[in-house]
Amino acid sequence: MLSLTTRLKIFLSVLAVVLLTGSFILYSKNNTTPAGKNEILIKALMQGLSTMHYKPEKVDDEFSKKAFKLYLDRLDFNKKFLLESDVAMLRKYETQIDDQLRAGSFEFFDISADLIEKRTKESEAFYKDILSKPFDFSKEENIELDGKKLKFAKDKNELKEAWRKQLKYQTLVRLADMQKQQEKATASADNKETRKTFEQMEAEAREKVMTAYNELYKRLDQVTRDDRRSTYINAVANVYDPHTGYFPPKAKKDFDIEFTGRLEGIGASLQEKDGQIKVFEIVPGSPSYMQGDLKPGDAIQKVAQGNGDPVLVEGMRLDDAIQLIRGKKGTEVRLTVRKPDGSTRVIPIIRDVIVFEETYAQSAMIDDQQKIGYIKLPGFYADFERNGGRNSGEDVKAEIAKLKAAGMQGLVLDLRNNGGGSLADAVEMAGLFIDQGPIVQIRTSSGKTVVLDDRDPEVQYAGPLVVMVNSNSASASEILAAAMQDYKRAVIVGTPTFGKGTVQQFVEIDEALPSQFDPYKPFGALKLTIQKFYRINGGTTQLRGVTPDVILPDAYSFLEFGEKEQEYALAFDEISPARYKPWTRSKLNIPAIQASSKSRVSGNESFNVIQKSGERLKKQADNTSRSLSLKKYMEEEKKSEVANKQLEDAQKNVPVLNVARLKSDLQAISGDTAKMARNKDFLKSLQKDVYVEEAVAIIKNDIK
């Protein structure tokens, strides 16, 4: 069984041999200008993937078909450029990608890039012609919004018709917004603005769509062949798993900036998926986190600078979209997003740097007949550089000590929307609640299993414990929740977690290549999956995540989200359990706890409304067809507004929990108006949190 370091050395030596063997093709005739950089790149990447990935793929015809499918989806997901005949021509290469990868050839890519560039140029005439004339919004017709359900057009007439519907829908959305704004303005007593006619608003809506597409095509003209090549390479890399990918030099630099948190912006991690730019994760303490409306799974359609005209980002390169979203502290960006249920919402966010206090563990005391401690942990942070920074494990330990001193009789640990972080801190934190023993198992591609243990016999807190999770709890959050569940130490409450049970590592290609290849650098980096997490009971957290003991209604739990929705995600599997002894100081009667909670939840009006909202969201998400009739569109929008209002009202009717910060925490922030304001918001949201209310009820009534 070879270690990662050994495999890296093998990778470097083999790579040098592979590349130098073919070096006779790497220079031009005058022997001064390097050539063949792309051939070096693809061979280096494929060698790294086959040598270092957790589960190397067999690069054969089946691999080729998978890469072809991913690439075709990303080339034209919404099927607005390529014709059926184009796809048939490209499909001739469906089983040849593997052969070309081994040869360092980009033949298929070059043909596809030439084709998409040609079709993109041709489509420019479509939108200009279509938007030059008014639309008839009284006509009964529909548009399919899900690219997976669409078919490629048979000819250019059919393609132009698809464009007509797309442009009509985008005009319809703007027209409906303008009508709603005018109605609100008319209702205002001091309104003196002149009402616009329907014809004027329709023309203005079309003009705005035209402007958006003019800007889009300017950016499409700037897409380079290397940009397209990165898309192709990542389609190949993503066959291994969705977290493995290639970062060109600029993309790697952007990633490093965002990872350090030094960038001023909105604090959302974005990814290209299904031809759209989607929110993958919200950074704790960021402007998006504080604003609260932007959620993982949202698709960003347009970006506006303050009250300026929005720019269409559908079909845009991810890094270009990010450049539009980024900006200076204090400036406003307005994101038009399509929610998973199909509704559209404009979300204003004031750009800022991360408020680091919001990323750290925070506690409060809930006084409800019993004193129940509450700790919110947004992420598993750590001082990796050992510069005197904070670690989440130590912080949670300190919060427990303060709550115990204040008379805590039960504890709620909130890991909702916690995307993970430091594995060492997850292990340390689990050790706060048990005597000692294994916490998580890690397996390498060689099959070697390493068990990470809590070796400290001291228990910081031995009382009743509830751990809250949801679909955005991932990685280290899942490890901690799984350990507490396997030890029967805590009741896990919420919705099934994300299901990311893998570990990634960056390999800098420039560092991996010997000095002979300096003339070709920079190449960028390869991020690849190298390990997999397993629970101490033997099952991996990959794909399935952690299923709570008590599952509570959640509107978004009805929607498709999580690792299981990623294409070619690594599978769930099991290994031998670790040796551990379940917690014996108290007994958890999970069936009785589930029955008691179910009885409370069924009689809770807020949870009933959440359940109905989830069912409605699921129905809307499944129905991806939309009417192009203005009347019908407005009716559907009003129905959604009513349903959303019902959900908001239900949240307002939640009994107010008696929540307070500890005196020491209040003293620490006294005099700082910004911190006091954030503290007020923290308590306000906690007081009306129906999920925390149920977690408290479980501790009070069900844990003996």
Automatic annotation (TrEMBL):
Domain PDZ, residue spans: 256-326
Gene3D superfamilies, per the entry: 2-enoyl-CoA Hydratase, Chain A, domain 1 (3.90.226.10), 2.30.42.10, 3.30.750.44
Gene Ontology BP terms: proteolysis; signal transduction
Keyword Protease applies: yes
Record carries keyword Nucleus: no
Sorted UniProt keywords: Coiled coil, Hydrolase, Protease, Serine protease
Coiled-coil segments: 175-204
UniProt xrefs under PANTHER family: CARBOXYL-TERMINAL-PROCESSING PEPTIDASE 3, CHLOROPLASTIC, TAIL-SPECIFIC PROTEASE
Protein name stated in the entry: Carboxyl-terminal processing protease
Organism (species): Pontibacter ramchanderi
